[in-house]
Amino acid sequence: MTIKKQPFGTTPDGDTATLWTIENTSGLSLGICDWGATIVSVKQPDKAGRLDEIILGFDDASRYLSTEGYLGATCGRFANRIASGKFSLGGKEYQLNCNDGPNHLHGGEKGYNARTWEAAPYSEGNRSGVVFTLISPDGEENYPGELRISADYALDEQGRLFMDFKGVSNKPTIINITNHAYWNLAGAGSGSILNHLLKVHASGYLPVDETAIPTGEILSVEGTAFDFRDVKPISREFDHCMVIDGENGELRVAVEVRDPVSGRKLTLYTDRPGVQLYTGNFLQGTPFQKNGGFCLEPQDFPDAPNRPGFPPVVLQPGETYHHRSMIEFSNQ
Description:
Elements: E1 2-10, E2 16-23, E3 29-33, E4 38-45, E5 51-53, H1 62-66, E6 74-75, E7 81-82, E8 86-89, E9 92-95, E10 104-105, E11 118-124, E12 127-136, E13 147-156, E14 160-169, E15 173-174, E16 178-179, E17 197-200, E18 202-205, E19 219-220, E20 232-233, E21 239-244, E22 252-258, E23 264-270, E24 274-278, E25 295-299, E26 314-315, E27 321-331
Antiparallel strand pairs: 1-2, 2-3, 3-4, 4-5, 6-16, 7-10, 8-9, 11-12, 12-13, 13-14, 14-27, 15-26, 17-20, 17-22, 18-19, 18-21, 21-24, 22-23, 23-27, 24-25
């Protein structure tokens, strides 16, 4: 394993960004930046040994905030949407910034994707990574509580990318952290991902209203376009939370995706109850085309603070939020 550090342009705040590149002996590499704790690169050999970039990203930190889509970013304090930007906690109603039409999305105007994180690289055995840390002040984006958060991204010799998020707060708050990488297993910029082969270990999904807010129901995928329990092409656009089978809190296989031409495959494992399946519907074509990448965002359910029937997302003082996900890369 090797780990390298280099400048990565200037952030919108005027600071010099830093990029860490981790590579294993098989040629699989991970590039991650302290601006937004952002995955900017994953390069993977295909079944013939050809190395390609499989993440949609840029070569300079300044381009990440000027481009919509949260490419590769660590999203929080609450990833995904909260209806009308409102939730109640401890008898008090909080009004968050509505930055997605009538709703709050991915932590608001100054989410964690738009912050410089402290970074500490490390190597342990056959695994190397970077632990990013951030202090989110009490009242930031009108969220209650000072939240201390870490995002640990690591790569190992077995071809696995580990994503480990932790948080502690001095007041009751809500929390939901994810990564928003866009993948194209045929190679970034190679075209649409709608021909990728997909299997989702989910018997249910969350239907949404016209503003992409869950209705509160959990519906069966049986007989619907959301049924990917058997492998089939993605074929159409999605921006929905899939309800992953198995025990919430247990690391388990959630999603498998393969490019039939290159043979590249990724398998996502997570301990979260849901994975947001998003097919790049709003990519504008400059520089990445519509449907040019897919996102698999392991997370708690959207709008969970307003849905008592969904798994709880409140973090109390003295507790530790801990989200574990892993992506395994292979060829078939």
